[in-house]
Amino acid sequence: DSVEIEGDFQRGWSTPEKLITIDCGTFDFFYISYILASNSLIQYRLIVDGEAELDLMNPEVVEELGSGNRNVFQMPDFKHSDALSYRPEVKAGRIEYRLFQSENVEFADRLLEIYLPSDYTEENHYPVLFVNDGKIKLYTTPFKTVIDNLIYDRLIESIIVVFVPFIE
User: Fold this and answer.
1) Best CA proximity match to 119, nearest among 91, 85, 95
2) For residue 134, what pLDDT is reported?
3) Phi and psi for 68 in degrees, rounded to 5?
4) 4-to-10, 34, 69 alpha-carbon distances in Å
5) Quick one: pLDDT at residue 67?
């Protein structure tokens, strides 16, 4: 009866969009159109009658921990980066957990997930990157792998990344 789509190409997965329906007699035809950059790589998922479903016409699927599997689509000019792929020779950083408690009653306590580089020591100073919607980014993108690879390839210095979860 209804088909929606959620993905990288519209409002960052926050609001699924309803597909347009054309009555074709014994069945309905659902569609939607987007204009994408020629070098895009997107992930998406369909929502059929309220249930998340993969696009059966697209065999490209990525398994996403905690958020369900998604279809992947790449435009013709997309160029894969080595930074996106797990490489066994790269020493992985680790994730530690810290509870952030605020004395301000307007702010809820938050469990932060903190990336520490493989060469982390308490004696050194590191730049820090704060990532909003951090839990989503940490578990639905290869964020940690990218940081590990960029440090290993000496494209960035060792860094601490604080993944700040969204709280409504």
Assistant:
1) 91
2) 81
3) 85, 160
4) 12, 14, 16
5) 67
62 within 8 A of 84, measured Cβ to Cβ: no
| Residue tagged 């659902």 (tokens) | 30
Q: 75 vs 35, 36, 71, 79, CA distance in Å?
A: 11, 8, 14, 9
What's phi and psi for 22, nearest 5 deg? Answer: -120, 125
* Residue 127 confidence (pLDDT): 97
In tens, the pLDDT along 5-23 reads 988 876 667 788 999 999 9
Closest CA to 70 of 57, 80, 84, 60: 60
DSSP class of residue 121 equals -
Q: How many helices (H) and strands (E) does the chain have?
A: 2, 12
Cα-Cα-Cα-Cα torsion 133, 41, 30, 48, nearest 10 degrees, comes to: -40
Tell me what the mean pLDDT of segment 101-122 comes to. Answer: 88
CB 11 within 8 A of CB 20: no
What's the rounded Cα separation, in Å, for the pair 86 and 67?
20
CA 120 vs CA 117, 123, 126, 149: distances in Å:
5, 9, 9, 15
Distance from C-alpha of 127 to C-alpha of 48, rounded to nearest angstrom = 44
Question: Is residue 24 over pLDDT 60?
Answer: yes
pLDDT at 163 over 90: yes
Query: Does the pLDDT at position 141 exceed 80?
Result: no
